[in-house]
Amino acid sequence: MEPKQPTNLPAWLQAPASTTSHATRVTFWQRNQRHLRALLRRLAQPAPAIQPRWHLAPQINLIRLLLLVLLIALIQNAVLLWCLALLLGFQLLWLPPGQLRRFVRSWLFSSVVAVIIVLPSYWLNGPATLLFFSLKTSLMLANAQYYRLTTPFQDLLSGLKSLHFPDVLIMTLAIAVTYLRMLGQHLLLTMEALETRTVAPTKHPYRLIGAMFGNLYLKSYAYALELYAAMEARGFNGHYVRSTPTHSHWRDYLSLSPDLLVLILFVLWRP
Amino acid sequence: MALINLVNLCYDYPNTTGLDHLNLTINAGEFVCLMGPNGSGKSTLMKILSGLASPKSGDYQLDGQAITAAYLADAQRRQRLHQKIGVVFQNTDVQLFNTSVAEEIAFGPRQLGLSAAAIEQRVTDCLQLTDCEALRERVPYQLSGGEKKRVALASVLALNPEILLLDEPLNGLTIAAQQQILTLLQRLQSAGKTIIMASHNFQQVQAVGQRFIIFNSLHQISADMTAADLQRQPDRQTQLMTL
Amino acid sequence: MALINLVNLCYDYPNTTGLDHLNLTINAGEFVCLMGPNGSGKSTLMKILSGLASPKSGDYQLDGQAITAAYLADAQRRQRLHQKIGVVFQNTDVQLFNTSVAEEIAFGPRQLGLSAAAIEQRVTDCLQLTDCEALRERVPYQLSGGEKKRVALASVLALNPEILLLDEPLNGLTIAAQQQILTLLQRLQSAGKTIIMASHNFQQVQAVGQRFIIFNSLHQISADMTAADLQRQPDRQTQLMTL
Amino acid sequence: MHIPDNYLSPATCGTLVVAMAPVWTVSVLTVKAQVKKHHETLPMLGIAASLAFLIMMFNLPIPGGTTAHAVGGTLLAVLIGPWAACLALSVTLLLQALLFGDGGILAFGANALNMAVIMPFVGYGCYRLGQKLHHEKIGLAVGAYLGINAAALIAGVELGLQPLLAHTASGAPLYCPYGLNIAVPAMLSAHLLVAGWVELVFTLLVFQFVKRVAPTNLYQTPVKTNRRPWLALLVGLAILSPLGLLASNTAWGEWDTTELTHLLAQQHLSTQAPQGMVHGFHFQALFSDYAIAGLPVSVGYILSALSAILIFLLLIRGLQHGTETTD
Ligand SMILES: Nc1ncnc2c1ncn2[C@@H]1O[C@H](COP(=O)(O)OP(=O)(O)OP(=O)(O)O)[C@@H](O)[C@H]1O
Ligand SMILES: Nc1ncnc2c1ncn2[C@@H]1O[C@H](COP(=O)(O)OP(=O)(O)OP(=O)(O)O)[C@@H](O)[C@H]1O
Ligand SMILES: [Mg+2]
Ligand SMILES: [Mg+2]
């Protein structure tokens, strides 16, 4: 096999590059890249920066969240709701200041969005409904946000596992998050690569988007095989083996007690 | 006894040939180098050997056991196969899926149910062997190209597989790191592992390879010789220099 | 006049340094080789030069124009920058997204509004230059590792950029193909293009590089010298052999 | 169209989760059978879930300068099969609810019903129908458009029912404050006008790409299917839907069920990507008369529940016929 000698450069490649300018439109690529970077940053955190003061068993955390959201949805009594808000407030006290700011920022943002949506109902039902609804919604959002902030993904998985969710579901979740990282990174890099070859406004952005997600699907299909083999090769059999620290359970159940108290009050208290 | 035995093995992709009538026997403890032009089928062979794809026709036997699509359909058997064979893919990106390098390496041993101390031991050792100590707490997918290669190798080593399939494991490493990995591979081989490595750098693998299997662009094996054979054929050597 | 000018440029990733106080001037028409250990910042520098990331502090000037985050926020300017600079990524997998190799190469020229004949011409030429004629109708994502590298290079060439940023473009190619690409790059340089290439293979780039910029593991430039300087420093050369 | 928490009464949420149970069961059974033949189906589920996540967070430009995003239910159904898509989308929704704050935690069942069941199955049904008539692309286009709109309609109904089902003694709604007359039109118009088309174009383009590049990677309809899962689903839904009707009207009416308007869902999604595309709809709310809200009360609820069941029955019939003709 003779190493083939390259032919001479074609004329167009020898000519100095001529840069042309085109009128441009707003690019949505930039914005998507920003979102993706934010997502990846969030997923990259091996564990959330904060650990709550008492590390509760993951399943208890999950049950607590469910119970709280349910309670808030059920309760139409301002005093009880107030109690729940106080409960959350005390928990927040333990957060480091930076995390607290982060919590407040995202909570306020999502609450404002929620309130804007229900704002028109003022003209339908008057201020009381609006106020009550907004308060309840933001209380729910706050609880969910607190959970998100204090729960690493691993804990969610082991929580679900302790609650006897089927392995198929847990594995699918685990793979989904793993792939979210990989595919997200892939998508981001593809967008960057695409950008370096975008020398004029794309006439058919949609076609490119189609190609990008088509590629993403096909590649992930190929990856699915390889990654799964890589996982299996390393002993993965669909069961998540986790070294779960043994816990003194009384603390877990104790942590549920305020919520249970409110639940009991809710059931028994008929003002 | 032959560890790996291929008889008339063919593999087709939807619109191209992947492998064309391969016959090959690899014994336990050998250090085999796969060479050949781009697209000649090296990675495809790795895919078949690792059980990611099953041959279209012909036989693949591992330790006397035929590996067929039916065999692979069984999750437990597949898992046993995968435990025997460690693979470092050409594109290591697909191989790293944990949130930290230490986690990545611990993943395998943890699944095997080792004790925490044993896991920790393996992680530390593997990091050290591949010179990745500094990366321990980094996020794998955020590493540089060469770092990823090294971590991928470390994560496979942690499982202590019998057979190592390495698809161009030295690409993108510094020459010093390449040397280090080659030395490591040689040690592994003397510890009894079978090593099958694809490479384009004959000069580098010449020193370690015991057997050279050369593909041609028709996806066939065009030559299969030991290092001793090769010594006697200087023209072959110059040919390999270009692959 | 200096084509590229970096002054005290720093770049940080969320939890690691990427580049640390870089000072660098590259003139038009140079053939620059970036070398350094894994994770020293070569790819990061490419990312900054191509406008995919903007420096955390310090200046990056291209043709006398400062490239800042504000500059990059404007889509039109960014496109002009991309016209000037062609990039081949270290992981070429992410770079190919069309339905066929021919389409992939035509992607850039088509945006420029060339005539169908001119586009066809470019596609044919680029395929020939990178020895990919046989792959013309293949689907890019189904190619082998080395084939992808070559197609990625072809697709960038088709845009006829003034500056070529090549991140380890020879990885995974056969030695013959590597030689061919290097010759092609040399020709491009004599046609007036500026070429900036990262590599770990000093022996190979020694023959073509005019300037060698060496990173250390602290993400700084530890040496910056011309081929002539290097000739006079044999110990430097042996050092580079290990990078 | 992710319905956030507090828009649906707990009873509605509970009913819908229960209604989802048989669907999930059948999905798992069907997918398990699929895994036997192609073991990559298992990792594919997780991958499809993350793909759906990425699709939902990817902003597509729409004429007028704003952006919208596709949901990808129909697309996934065509790529990996409707049952697998149902599971994958459910996982995506769970992930979004628990870790990313998209869609409510209690409302998970409702969201799963809309986006993981109605959308992929309606879409896939149309696609299969088109395939039988040898116009699979048209089928797919119609499916994508109808799928998302059917989901939006149901979401609108779920939301719009809330004021009827759950209100205080004085008639003030406890959960979603908008009645059917607002919720349904708002959800529907946003989807009929914008989101449906975005979904259609996106689905079609990705499908076309995959079809051209690797047609074998599309979901191959199994030649022979076991009817039992279908039957189970049918029976399950038939039993459970009236049950839901029952549950929502009984004594605990105080905290009863309904759903969120499409508008609301759209707005909620935009916590991550604020968009102005549906702002216009607020005006409907402003001008609507309180009195009108009460009009289609019980009749509307029963009718829509019935139509939901009917749609399912029709779909299942259509799909069964499809499997017969292919062999
Ligand atoms: N997923 C795929 N679908 C279709 N064809 C493929 C696919 N992967 C590889 N091929 C083709 O199969 C042939 C063998 O590819 P393979 O990846 O095994 O080559 P290789 O020897 O590893 O090359 P390289 O040195 O470039 O990595 C090539 O012609 C390639 O284009
Ligand atoms: N996306 C990222 N996020 C965080 N850190 C990163 C990211 N990419 C690279 N790094 C880190 O930045 C440093 C420089 O990486 P870079 O990719 O530039 O190295 P490189 O010189 O190209 O190495 P190689 O020769 O291995 O390709 C490394 O320490 C790397 O781990
Ligand atoms: Mg290969
Ligand atoms: Mg690099």
Automatic annotation (TrEMBL), chain A:
Topology of this chain in the membrane: Multi-pass membrane protein
TM region(s), chain numbering: 62-95, 107-124, 168-188
Signal sequence, start to end: none
Lyase listed as a keyword: no
Pfam families attached to this UniProt entry: CbiQ
Keyword line: Cell membrane, Membrane, Transmembrane, Transmembrane helix
Subcellular location: Membrane
Protein name per the record: Energy-coupling factor transporter transmembrane component T
Protein source organism: Lactiplantibacillus plajomi
From TrEMBL, chains B, C:
Localization per record: Cell membrane
Keyword terms of this UniProt record: ATP-binding, Cell membrane, Membrane, Nucleotide-binding, Translocase, Transport
Residues of the ABC transporter domain: 4-242
Membrane topology, as annotated: Peripheral membrane protein
Keyword Cell membrane: yes
Coiled coil region boundaries: none
PANTHER family the UniProt entry points to: HEAVY METAL TRANSPORTER
Protein name: Energy-coupling factor ABC transporter ATP-binding protein
UniProtKB/TrEMBL annotation, chain D:
Source organism: Lactiplantibacillus plajomi
Membrane disposition: Multi-pass membrane protein
Organism classification: Bacteria, Bacillati, Bacillota, Bacilli, Lactobacillales
Domain PDGLE: 232-319
Keyword annotations: Cell membrane, Membrane, Transmembrane, Transmembrane helix, Transport
Pfam families linked: CbiM, PDGLE
Sequence intervals crossing the membrane: 7-30, 42-62, 74-99, 105-127, 139-162, 182-210, 230-252, 290-316
Subcellular location: Cell membrane
Protein name: Cobalt transporter CbiM
